[in-house]
Amino acid sequence: MAKRIDVSDLDIYYGNFKAVEGVNISIEPRSITALIGPSGCGKSTFLRSLNRMHEVVPGARIEGKVVIDGQDLYGSDVDPVDVRRQIGMVFQRPNPFPTMSIYDNVVAGVRLNSTKLKRAALDELVERSLRAANLWTEVKDRLDRPGAGLSGGQQQRLCIARAIAVEPEVLLMDEPCSALDPISTLAIEDLMTQLKERFTIVIVTHNMQQAARVSEFTGFFNLAGVGQPGRLVEFNPTEKIFSNPDQKSTEDYISGRFG
Ligand SMILES: Nc1ncnc2c1ncn2[C@@H]1O[C@H](COP(=O)(O)OP(=O)(O)OP(=O)(O)O)[C@@H](O)[C@H]1O
Ligand SMILES: [Mg+2]
């Protein structure tokens, strides 16, 4: 089941530092939303606020509201650990469990969710997830080897396989293709296009072509200066952002006239 995400008046802090300010956005289910903007403007920070990974940092907190399908994500009755299980995330830096085998990495999330699956069903899930992440042929003969033995791009694809294996209703991807070659990048874009039939996907990318290719909606984050909080400057259908954006700073950024 795809879910709708409504964010209102969101400020995000690391201790006293306000990293992101005043975000209002509604993210549609069964769609891909791309987030773009210069380094340090708070894209990763915002993304992590959508599955409560932000609070893992000591002193980190938010003000404002994140509502997922009508439920307050930060409500006092909500367990952040459950949230992190249900809202999948692929991080900017690949983070496979290094000593765990490739196979166990893929099913790690599924096992956490304590689904009791038979070995044959797990085998099938591992193959399906690795194929979707365009990694299967490279690792099928060494599934019992540690995840740390893979190249950077392979590790990134392993993390994508791990994230999709649990079939999350919302999938957050932070520059998932930054370490990938063009073939794997296209495979991941194909995968996202398939997944959005069922899920809600939010992707951070520095690749304008990628945002234009895969997403229905694009948000442009920017910051007024060093030490200032990042803001969502414009949020519009991707077609509009790349043809006729409302804000001049959006136009400057996407046409490379930034800074
Ligand atoms: N764990 C942290 N503790 C303190 N400040 C942080 C932490 N993580 C990020 N920040 C700060 O928050 C701001 C936003 O960082 P963030 O990583 O969200 O930017 P970004 O848009 O994802 O950048 P990039 O495109 O380089 O990945 C930056 O000023 C950064 O230094
Ligand atoms: Mg980032």
Q: If you had to describe this structure to a student in words, what would you say it looks like?
A:
- The protein has 259 residues and is an alpha/beta fold.
- It has a domain at 5-96 and 170-254: P-loop containing nucleotide triphosphate hydrolases (Rossmann fold).
- The chain is built from ten helices and ten strands.
- The strands form two sheets. It has a six-stranded mixed beta sheet with strand order 6-7-8-3-9-10, sandwiched between helices. It has a four-stranded antiparallel beta sheet with strand order 2-1-4-5, with helices on one face.
- Strand 9 and strand 10 form a beta hairpin.
- Helix 3 (102-112) runs parallel beside helix 6 and helix 4 (119-132) crosses helix 6.
- The longest helix is centred in the middle third of the chain and has 14 residues, at 119-132.
- It is globular and about 55 Å long.
- The model has no long low-confidence stretch (mean pLDDT 94).
- It binds adenosine-5'-triphosphate and magnesium ion.
- Adenosine-5'-triphosphate (ATP) is lined by residues 14, 17, 19, 39-45, 57, 92.
Structure described in brief:
By secondary structure, this protein is of the alpha/beta class. 35% of the residues lie in helices and 25% in strands.
